[in-house]
Amino acid sequence: MENDIFKALADPSRRKLLDLLHAADGRTLNDLCAPLDMSRFGVMKHLNILEEAGLITTRKVGREKLHYLNAVPIRQIYERWVSKYAEPWVLELTTLQNELERETNMQNKPRNVNRIAIKAKPEQVWQAITDPAKTSKFWFNCSIRSTWEIDAPFELWGENEKKAEGTILDMDPPNKLVMSWRFLSFPGTESDTMSRITWEIGSHAEFQGVTLVTVVHDEFEQAPGTAAILENGLPIVLSGMKTFLETGEMLAEK
After folding, report:
1. Ranges for the HTH arsR-type domain (predicted)?
2. Does pTM surpass 0.90?
């Protein structure tokens, strides 16, 4: 899989497509063709390579196919090949840049989409998301507490402090979980309204014993601080969950 990612990133046109999606996610093929000097077929070919490498995801909305940057594989490459050599301030500068750029992109019903493949059953992924003893292993040492019923409240706790809260909007164990989300203790989120996180969990169509987990964060038009935090945080959460389910270890221990 890493070879596919490096191959996909080697082409400047594909890197340009990723830059375009980073600037404004959820674009149609026509949107992506306009800035590139190539045929529609050529852009489609590059997008297919990026999707096969897991660097982008697609979703059908009506008759349109929308393309989204998937930050999880890039984060995993960073964890393995960059973070062990880079100074901590590099990550801080990248985070600051992402937050500044995000401020200019709150339009046209934005959403962030992340996807990861985990060698585990959907039931194991569901348990990891809903069991406080397990969420604390990969969710920045925080545990999610709820009765896990529709319309029930949930809370995210860490270091004896409630970090976030929301409501279970919809659920279909072990396939889907939809929750509203609001941070309580992060600077810059004081005026944010509730946003929404959707977990989609399903068996991989080709690889037995592998589950695809897609996380969509949307409805954050009035929650820019929350969007910036989750844009950077959810890929780490997903990477940590993959490491925990596949190895039993925490991401920070590797």
Report:
1. 1-89
2. no
